[in-house]
Amino acid sequence: MSPDDRALVDRFLDMMAAEAGASRHTLAAYRNDLDRACETLGSLGSATAADMSRLGGSWAELAPSTVARRSAALRRFFGFLVDEGLRREDPSSALPRPRFERPLPRILDEDEVRRMFEAAEDRAASGERTAVRNLALIELLYGSGLRASELVGLPSGSVRPGQPFLMVRGKGAKERLVPISTRAQAAVGQWREQVPSGSPWLFPSGKSHLSRVRLFQIVRAMAADGGISPERVSPHVLRHAFATHLLSGGADLRVLQSLLGHSDIATTQIYTHVDSARLVELVNARHPLATRGR
To answer: Which one of 147, 212, 220, 245 is the catalytic residue?
Structure first.
């Protein structure tokens, strides 16, 4: 692997650790898959869709789960490069998509989220600067379902008093409207009073904005304050909780797709799951034959 490709892979894995809370085992698996792809292609940074098609063809004898894992690693890698402006196009659409059952994402139940908020609110009540900032962060993560990169990169004027939504630039530079609750507006309003005037960022840090790595550390510390094992929590887990709890509360899947910024409804179906009891309850309550007598 060339030094340039190695640098790109290292940046990608740093993001995976910070934003998705990937374990050492997961990071090692991603690195191994990317190394193997580079051995076949010669270069990752300059790979084309034709290269991806050729790579997929070389996986013909592998198990579907292995093909799916390698494809997922490359899709996330190239998606990261496009998001960061390191590539203009994503060639990974040419990779195979084998069918198999994907594991459900990690999730927090509503009581655990409540405990995190209670601890954050208690700390913010003191007026201490970082505690006020942290409450605003968790309100936007769980209340609006933002990605970690979207949250830390919010401009200072993105949340305006009386405006119940904000414009977010997500993956692929796509923009979408995201609702912001009255609670989140109040928390952000309190935090903005402590943001230095003239800062271009809502969550400034040094010469730039808060990093995804630091956000990950903050969220885990807030989980510990709420009596929850920090290893179970990350910014991405709170995004999952946002979607899952809305869905279990009766939200429409297409609405969630829009709120989360997913281009494919299948992604929303994987990221937002409800238990079988809830599904049976919905069928019994909403199906037109549910109240029809025999």
So the answer is: 147
